[in-house]
Automatic annotation (TrEMBL):
Its main location: membrane. The keyword Transmembrane helix does not apply. It comes from the Bacteria. InterPro entries: AAA+_ATPase, ABC_transporter-like_ATP-bd, ABC_transporter-like_CS, P-loop_NTPase, Siderophore_ABC-ATPase. Pfam families: ABC_tran. This is Iron complex transport system ATP-binding protein. It is found in: Cell membrane.
Length: 279
């Protein structure tokens, strides 16, 4: 991906405050999260980590108003997000879910144009600025040459970059990403994470669910570690990631090293723990 054009950040990076208070969520008769409190640091990259089934994606769905809580509330700039008009939420918060899908035959450029919908109205139709933002998002995601390609004809990594470009084109101060690099090879993973860092440097608030703990440590300012629906540690990665935390989260023993470039923790020497994991 190329450097982030100023067009994609101007006027869309005002400080935004997102928090959960006493949040409880689940599916059918299964409770996944109970009485959870969380404040997302504005203008930073927050990574949510933890084992499969711990509630990471459920929490992200609740923060984005995609999933209704059974108790508690999510507040956006101090107001209950459930009470805000949908268009207002969409102008302040963009979500890239893990299982994003699009109609057959949709081109890359057409998908990215959907990111501009919250900014359209009867009094404000498609403009040259909208098209410029779409073009800039295509360039940032290295997709200009593929703009007219149908999504279904592209590789998984290319499709993922198209979805990320759509979220960027929405031009919101807050961006929620559920495993944004899951379909990407190593090179494109790094490009996506570096783009996320550029967005944060421009003032955007980013929340992302990440499976790879070393990547989360390297690219996030704030780490939220979840286990069995609860937050068991949070803070700067270098402060909260310990061998004990890794064993509690994933049931493995490890050695923590320091990345010589970023000075963040690297997980090495992984072995299955002989200690029973909780739950």
């Amino acid at each position: 991906m190329t450097s982030l054009p100023t067009l994609l950040t101007d006027g869309s990076c005002a400080a935004v405050r997102l928090e959960a208070r006493g949040l409880s969520m689940g599916y059918a008769h299964s409770q996944v999260i109970e009485h959870l409190d969380l404040l997302i640091p504005p203008g930073q990259v927050t990574a949510i980590v933890g084992p499969n089934g711990c509630g990471k994606s459920t929490l992200l769905a609740g923060l984005s108003r995609l999933h209704k809580p059974s108790a508690g509330a999510v507040l956006l700039d101090g107001k209950a997000i459930a009470s805000l008009p949908s268009r207002e939420v969409a102008r302040r918060l963009a979500l890239l879910p893990q299982d994003a899908s699009a109609p057959d035959g949709l081109s890359v450029a057409e998908l990215i144009r959907f990111g501009r919908q919250p900014h359209q109205s009867l009094l404000r139709q498609w403009s040259e600025q909208d098209q410029a933002i779409v073009d800039a998002a295509l360039a940032a995601a290295d997709l200009l040459e593929l703009a007219e390609r149908p999504l279904e004809s592209m590789s998984g990594g290319q499709r993922q970059r198209a979805w990320i470009a759509m979220a960027i084109a929405q031009a919101t101060p807050l961006l929620l990403l559920d495993e944004p690099t899951s379909a990407l090879d190593l090179g494109h993973q790094i490009e996506v994470f570096e783009l996320i860092r550029q967005l944060a440097a421009a003032g955007k608030t980013i929340v992302m669910v990440v499976h790879d703990l070393s990547s989360a440590c390297r690219y996030a300012d704030h780490l939220v570690a979840m286990h069995q629906g609860q937050i068991i540690a949070q803070g700067a990665p270098s402060d909260v990631v310990t061998a004990e935390l890794v064993e509690r989260l994933y049931g493995v023993r490890c050695v923590l090293l320091q990345d010589p470039l970023s000075a963040t923790p690297i997980i090495a020497g992984i072995q299955r723990s002989t200690r029973p994991t909780e739950g």
